[in-house]
């Protein structure tokens, strides 16, 4: 990857902080600290469609964005439905 390429980050939960991930999640390494993170099915699909999209844990994402004046953020298509299903199962337990 060229140093001038923009890197987009997919904000992910660390596996240590979320032992029961959203269904269909895989493990990946944080772009910055290399900690294992969960990448949901919708996140995987988004990463497959964008070579510059890389997983980043919440803590590293906060650090990367703290001095940014112009932050562009969007929700990965399908993520809201994944979270709804996840929280409905959590409430059932």
| 3D shape | globular
Helix- and strand-based class? alpha+beta
> Could you give the count of β-strands?
4
Q: Could you state the order of secondary-structure elements as H and E?
A: EEEHEHH
Strand order of the largest sheet: 1-4
Q: Count up the domains.
A: 1
Radius of gyration: 14 Å
Approximate strand percentage: 15-25%
Question: Gap between N and C termini, in Å?
Answer: 44 Å
* Main sheet overview: 2 strands, parallel
Q: How many DSSP H or I helices?
A: 3
Mean pLDDT: 86
Could you name the ranges where pLDDT drops below 50 across 5 or more consecutive residues?
none
User: Roughly how much helix do the residues carry, as a percent range?
Assistant: 25-40%
Summarize the structure.
The chain has helices at 41-48, 58-65, 79-92; strands at residues 8-12, 26-29, 36-39, 53-57.
Architecture overview:
The chain has 93 residues and is of the alpha+beta class. The protein has helices at 41-48, 58-65, 79-92, and strands at 8-12, 26-29, 36-39, 53-57. The chain has one domain. The strands form two sheets. The chain has a two-stranded parallel ribbon. The longest helix is centred in the last third of the chain and has 14 residues, at 79-92. It is globular.
């Amino acid at each position: 990857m060229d140093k001038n390429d923009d890197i987009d980050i997919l904000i992910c939960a660390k596996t240590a902080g979320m032992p029961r991930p959203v269904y269909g999640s895989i493990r990946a390494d944080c772009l910055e600290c290399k900690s294992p993170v969960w990448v949901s099915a919708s996140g995987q699909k988004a990463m497959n469609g964008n070579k510059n999209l890389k997983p980043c844990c919440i803590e590293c994402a906060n650090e990367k964005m703290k001095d940014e004046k112009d932050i562009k953020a969007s929700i990965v298509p399908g993520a809201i439905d994944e979270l709804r299903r996840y929280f409905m199962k959590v409430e059932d337990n």
